[in-house]
Amino acid sequence: MSYKLLTYAAGRDARPGVLVGEQVFDAARLTGDARHATVLGVLNDWPKANRALAQAAKRIATGKSRVKGAPLARTKLLAPILYPGAIFCAGANYRDHAEEMARVSGTPLEKDQRELGLSPWHFIKTSRASVVGPGATVKLPAYSQMIDWEVELGAVIGRPAKNVSVERALDYVAGYTIGNDLSARDSGRRPHLPDSSPFKFDWLGQKCFDGSCPLGPWITPASDIPDPQKLGMKLWVNDELMQDSNTGRMIFSTAEQIAQLSTRVTLQPGDVVLTGTPAGVGMARRRFLKPGETVRLWIEGIGELRNTMA
Fold first, then answer.
1. Both 54 and 100 in a single domain?
2. Contacts of residue 149, Cβ cutoff 8 Å, sequence gap at least 6
3. Same domain for 92 and 61
4. Are residues 58 and 137 in the same domain?
5. Which of 222, 182, 205, 121 lies closest to 309 in space, CA to CA?
6. How many structural domains is the chain composed of?
7. From the centroid of its chain, how far is CA 304?
8. How far apart are CA 135 and CA 211, in angstroms?
9. Cα–Cα dist 138/130, whole Å
10. What whole-number distance in Å separates Cα of residue 97 and Cα of residue 210?
11. Helix (H), strand (E) at residue 180
């Protein structure tokens, strides 16, 4: 039975939740397992926990469960994972986005990473400082005037993965969520240093400011997403559509990215792989986020994530 895995606020506590229909149920109460007291705990026991939650969702949907839920509309959702062990972000993984960024820098893109014989390329976002959930307000950093948006499919790891094959890589995915890789475009390059300097780029300042990684609204189990390369994705700023694409346009697939990452590090349950963003970012328009604006992201099969800038 279909369900969504989420984290919700219960007073001052954060609890793991399961969304069935329009009702939210406490995941640990459904499984009766104390290890499932957080979503990270659920992911660390994913195969067993997923079976138990799917069975519980089926009982709820068929009216055979006495467990009471709370209306989704009255439930405060937090980021689905508090907090990922690591957040790996793919760079330049949609050709149309790579092309628009090349135009901005005045260097037309002739070949993409695959055509050049390269492997997928990733950087890392911080976790606790960067991650915020649905409905959260993101305070724009004082040091930047060029905060940009990026809608991305997030693959949530559910089993330790080391040196996995492309063919098996998706077996290690617990589910999928939505991420917004907010970026301070005017803080990516340090001044007074040549482009050839290894110290030129400031990935921390550009990608890791507080609130720079909205995630949510929940995790859709991988069993409900038969092919992560066939998902529509959109992003609006206020009511203006900025990005409108499909995950099928990735240069390197989700499976290829996970396989490549697993040759460098052991991916752990709760890690998130953000798989890249398509064309339509603000940098190409010279249009950036302002206080009071709302960013709304949607990915097919997952849902909608919304945040307001301040």
1. no
2. 180, 182, 235, 237, 242, 243, 281, 282, 289, 295
3. no
4. no
5. 182
6. 2
7. 12
8. 12
9. 10
10. 25
11. strand 173-180
Residue among 135, 21, 37 nearest 70 (CA): 21
**Looking at 78, 101, 124, which one is the last position of a domain?**
78
Q: Cα 211 from chain centroid? A: 13
Distances (CA, A) of 296 to 146, 236, 276, 308: 18, 5, 17, 9
| 3-class DSSP assignment, residue 131 | strand
- Sign, CA torsion 84/88/90/91: positive
Tokens 């907090």 belong to residue: 83
Residue 291 CA: distances (Å) to CA of 11, 140, 283, 288, 310: 28, 7, 17, 10, 4
Of 32, 51, 78, the residue at which a domain comes to its end is 78
pLDDT tens string 1-50: 699 999 999 999 999 999 999 999 999 999 999 999 999 999 999 999 99
Express each pLDDT in 265-308 by its tens digit. 999 999 999 999 999 999 999 999 999 999 999 999 999 999 99
Mean pLDDT of 52-78: 95
> What is the C-alpha to C-alpha distance for residues 6 and 77, in angstroms, rounded to an integer?
7
Q: What are phi and psi of 304, to 5 degrees?
A: -130, 140
CB atoms within 10 A of CB 85: 15
For the record, the structure tokens of 176 come out as: 């999928």
CA distance 302 to 233: 10
- Strand, coil or helix: what is 134? coil
Q: Which two tokens stand for residue 253?
A: 């697939």
Per-residue burial over 167-190, b = 16 or more CB atoms within 10 Å of its CB, e = otherwise:
eebbebbbbbbbbbbbbbbbbbee
In this prediction, residue 105 carries a pLDDT of 79
pLDDT given for residue 1 in this prediction: 67
